Amino acid sequence: MPENSLALDLRPEIRLKTETNASAPRRAFPLGFLLRLVVSGGLIWFLLTKSDLNAIRSALGHLDYRYWIAALAIYAVSQVTSGYRWFTLGRAVGFRHSWRHFQKLYLEGMFFSLCLPSSIGGDVVKAMRLGSNAGERLLAAGTVLADRLTGLTALCIVCATSFLARSWELGLSASLFLGAGVLLVAIISFLVGQWFLRWNSARLGNIPRLGAILAELNIYNHQPGVVFRAVGWSFIVQLTTVAMVWLLGRGINLDLPAASYFVAVPAVALASTLPLSVNGVGVREGGLALLLQPDGLTEEQGVALGLLWFSITMASGLIGGLAFLWKGEQLPRSPESHN
Questions:
Q1: More confident residue, 304 or 116
Q2: Which of 85, 157, 306, 319 could form a disulfide with 285 if both were Cys (CB 3.0 to 4.6 A apart)?
Q3: Domain boundaries in the chain?
Q4: pTM for the full model?
Q5: How far apart are CA 6 and CA 9, in angstroms?
């Protein structure tokens, strides 16, 4: 393996078992998907029965499509940033593919996340297509997990900072200072957690299935700088997401302060990551309607804004489908595949 790649911190028997399980196909009845489908359908039904459908149609009918196109462009920036974040994490552990290849696979993952009956279907596709054998795919799964966790870290920091700043009625300077404090707490927590995993890796590795998870987390044990840079890119992703929803709100003539979006959008995005619904459907619309009501937004306007947000996600997923159909460049295998 090259010097910049890291071996998985597992004993051979655990690694062999994990690789075997990773390569074995699993077929299970999608009960979890059906439950999420019921939750999404129930939430949408509840919102529609409580809302004035004519008011929702009126809000959507007054959409200025120039703002929708601008929002799609902003969302595309966030997807490119996310792809580069994954590229950074992948290159750090030995994957020598180009940024363009990582970006293509990231867009494909967006498409399959919309199509597959699983909340992590797109992540599985990304890992399977990045690696060329069982060992590489396990390593690729580690990069996907790290990509998810760094994004979630930034999202939690923005969400906590926004809610605290809103609760304490802080100004911009004080809010930025508060955000820096929350970030410092997150960094310290990461370093402590990393030390704990190193100290207990042998004992925790004996627990079934936990060994594989530790392997995926341990690949960046000696590269905290890479993780911190990935979190930095994640902040840009969160800012562009807020800007995207703000543009959609402007497109339907919502008169809301920017601070309201900084509170509602990260919170709704965080709730949408939970495996409770299909692609956040119902959670997104209901969350915006609930969190923006104190700022004078009607329930119908919140539902309309959530539907527009979902339309942007759908459009991005379709772009990922086109990326999947496009053959693109043929790239050499990573050197790890020859070991």
A1: 304
A2: 306
A3: 37-325
A4: 0.80
A5: 9
